[in-house]
Amino acid sequence: MDDLDPFASTIPAPTAARPLMGLTILVVEDSRFACEAMRLLSLRSGARIRRADCLRSARRHLQVYRPSVVIADLGLPDGNGADLIAELNVASPRVGVLLGTSGDPGGESAARAAGADGFIPKPITSLGAFQQIVLSNMPADRQPCGLRLVEDEEIHPDLIAFQDDMAHIAEVLEDPPNEHALDYVAQFLGGVARSAKDQGLETAALALARQRACGRSARSETAILAGMIQERLTRKIAI
């Protein structure tokens, strides 16, 4: 629960059907699409959720509230989420559960090296898997008593959130992007594309990332991505 929340004593205990009841989860995530997935997973599990879209916003939030769980994306617009995990790991009192998240296969080792208790690989859509990762790192007195209902439900974020992400990157690419911006674009779009199962966009993001890693010009790859983003922004969404 929020240790600094004046209403914490009235928060209900976890149940078999809502095993995260009573918890407040701070999700530090710049992708609207990924955050919408976390929101649905948290609410279906009984938890309350707060969101910060960058390190600065997260630190501002933590000056006022101390959530039960922090889930920090490693690739953020103003830095690495591992830095926030490292800060919170040595803070006193410590947040109950620190989790890293990333679509990068190497993200888990970086998160754990910073002090994370666990790691959530992107994309995550399984309600049961999400609950297990959080609960496995909770103290025994914060877990539901008796048998727990293991859900195999899959959640599906609203595609409007996906278009919000496309609009965000379109703004980043409006001005001639610097090297940091291109690295951010490649990382951000790679994660969003995997979560949305957009293979074409993921392939283009990986091509940009490879060019950047080799130190070669990425003008062509950036132009291709910009065109793909504009195409996705013009798609009509059935409401």
UniProtKB/TrEMBL annotation:
<dbReference type="GO" id="GO:0000160">
    <property type="term" value="P:phosphorelay signal transduction system"/>
</dbReference>
<dbReference type="InterPro" id="IPR011006">
    <property type="entry name" value="CheY-like_superfamily"/>
</dbReference>
<dbReference type="Pfam" id="PF00072">
    <property type="entry name" value="Response_reg"/>
</dbReference>
<protein>
    <submittedName>
        <fullName>Response regulator</fullName>
    </submittedName>
</protein>
<feature type="domain" description="Response regulatory">
    <location>
        <begin position="24"/>
        <end position="137"/>
    </location>
</feature>
<dbReference type="InterPro" id="IPR001789">
    <property type="entry name" value="Sig_transdc_resp-reg_receiver"/>
</dbReference>
<dbReference type="InterPro" id="IPR050595">
    <property type="entry name" value="Bact_response_regulator"/>
</dbReference>
<keyword id="KW-0597">Phosphoprotein</keyword>
<feature type="modified residue" description="4-aspartylphosphate">
    <location>
        <position position="73"/>
    </location>
</feature>
